[in-house]
Design a protein that fits this description.
Blueprint lengths: L2 H12 L1 H13 L18 E5 L2 E4 L4 E4 L2 H4 L8 H13 L8 H11 L7 E5 L2 H16 L3 E5 L22 E2 L2 E2 L16 E4 L4 H10 L4 E6 L15 H12 L2 E5 L11 H6 L5 E4 L10 E5 L1 H8 L12 H14 L2 H25 L4 E5 L2 E5 L8 H7 L2 H12 L3 E2 L9 E2 L6 H22 L1
Parallel strand pairs: 3-15, 5-8, 5-9, 9-10, 10-11
Antiparallel strand pairs: 1-2, 2-3, 4-12, 6-7, 11-12, 13-14, 14-16
Helix pairs in contact: 1-14, 4-11, 5-11, 6-10, 7-8, 12-15, 14-15
Bound molecules: pyridoxal-5'-phosphate (PLP).
């Protein structure tokens, strides 16, 4: 039997209850999911509950989870300390549309991690964080255009969905990527205020800036591009962008929705020792509560006090403020980082070893709690490399081969990464690697 047919048949056998539940969901909810990414073929398994490093589906299958809510769960599921703090807050009120002191506590906990952050505002998601950061950067610079990186994801607002996942035939010149709007419903005119540059190419960025002097007021980057793989910056790239932003009077935004608090306590800014003007956050700062934030230098953030709009009924509500403060002060401690980083390295080394033993072409990209296996020996240094070298169908076999053994290696899709949580232990890493070892011979045959 073909590998895929075999894996699909096993998946269907294990998840009949999910198939039925997903059919029912589709009657009420478009595509059966609350975020379109979550719908995949043949159908996604339907979750019943989660605890520690595990997810359980409606058929009673247990999954050792390295997806961790698309990277939002560095604390793991239902962390007892976070659960206790949030439960306490449930009794004291979950929403005050008046100032409260928990807001300051949560903001201070972030400021301690990002030295450039003088002021912080909370939002309810990463999308809101990048949308507001872009507005604030435009207001501060007095310029309308935002420069973004080809293939980077910054959420789902109109300005973010340009050249995020350009189809192969439409990409344009590698140094001047085409501006491609991803979705119907986004006005064509949106692209007039967005420019797109390749990752890891300072010359290309500078040439675009020169062509748009006094037009580009903001540059937003995922410091490690995690929308497609784990694409790390060349040594001088992020600092080079800092210098270009200074030269051209541009607000430099790090989108740390995925990297923030995960690659180091102070995110990629700390890891690469580069100071942006604004940082956007969400996901793992909130211990699985819906929260985002953006923060930065006093003079940039002060445009809010001068009238630039940032409002929201649920912004910085006491429930999420309590969760953020607890996650940052009590759960993601120095010891927790040592633990997670050690496990991340163990997983990465284990994958490399198994691939070498079985002659599988591939390599691991690993940055502390975040990593993934790319089934290519070629370096993946920008969006074009990803398109050229990643065999999405092959990766799908790997993913379902793991899933059928009760290991969820990362979110569905070849572009995605694992997250090591504080609730993973060495034995979980070894279980993950054992599952990979089991499918390695068939993957090697498939690749041959
Ligand atoms: C780098 C980055 N920015 C922004 C977002 C959007 O965050 P949210 O899904 O909370 O809106 C994501 C989500 O994956 C992300 O990875």
């Amino acid at each position: 039997m073909e590998l895929w047919d075999d894996y699909e048949a096993t998946y269907r056998e294990r998840t009949a209850g999910s198939e039925a539940a997903f059919e029912r969901l589709q009657e009420d909810v478009p595509a059966g999911v609350a975020s379109t990414y979550r719908a995949w073929d043949p159908y996604p398994f339907v979750v019943d509950r989660a605890e520690g490093p595990y997810l359980y589906d409606v058929d009673g299958n247990e999954y050792l989870d390295f997806d961790m809510n698309n990277g939002a769960a560095m604390v793991g599921h239902a962390h007892p300390t976070v659960t206790e703090a949030a439960s306490d807050q449930l009794h004291d009120g979950t929403l005050f549309t008046h100032p409260h002191e928990l807001l300051g506590e949560a903001a201070s906990a972030l400021k301690e991690r990002w030295s450039m952050m003088d002021k912080v505002r909370f939002t309810n998601s990463g999308t809101e964080s990048t949308m507001h950061a872009m507005r604030i950067a435009r207001a501060y610079s007095g310029r309308d255009t935002v420069l973004k990186i080809e293939g980077a994801y910054h959420g789902v607002h109109d300005y973010a969905l340009i050249s995020k996942a350009t189809p192969e035939g439409q990409v344009g010149h590698p140094k001047r990527p085409n501006k491609v709007i991803e979705s119907d419903g986004i006005p064509e005119k949106t692209a007039e205020t967005v420019e797109v540059a390749p990752f890891n190419d300072l010359d290309a960025v500078e040439s675009i800036l020169e062509d748009h002097v006094n037009e580009i007021g903001a540059l937003i980057v995922e410091p490690i591009v995690l929308a497609k793989g784990v694409t790390q910056p060349y040594d001088d790239f992020l600092q080079g962008l800092r210098e270009l932003c200074d030269e051209y009077g541009i607000v430099y935004i790090f989108d740390e929705v995925k990297t923030g608090v995960k690659v180091a306590p102070g995110g990629a800014a700390e890891y690469y020792d580069v100071e942006p003007d604004l940082v956007t956050l969400a996901k793992s700062i909130g211990g699985n509560f819906p929260v985002g934030a953006f923060g930065g230098r006093e003079e940039v953030m002060s445009v809010i006090e001068d009238g630039t709009a940032h409002y929201g009924t649920y912004n910085g509500n006491p429930l999420v403020a309590r969760a953020v403060e607890t996650v940052l002060n009590d759960v993601l401690t120095g010891e927790a980082y040592d633990h997670v980083n050690r496990l991340g390295q163990r997983l990465a080394d284990g994958y490399e070893e198994i691939m070498a033993d079985h002659g599988i072409e591939g390599h691991v990209e690993n940055v502390n709690s975040i990593g993934m296996v790319l089934f290519t020996d070629e370096p993946v240094e920008n969006y074009r490399d990803y398109l050229e070298h990643i065999d999405v169908e092959f990766h799908e076999n790997y993913w379902f081969g793991m899933l059928n053994q009760g290991v969820l290696p990362h979110p569905h899709d070849a572009s995605q990464q694992w997250t090591i949580s504080v609730q993973h232990e060495e034995e979980h890493i070894d279980e993950h690697l054992d599952a990979f070892e089991n499918i390695a011979p068939r993957l090697a045959d498939e690749q041959a």
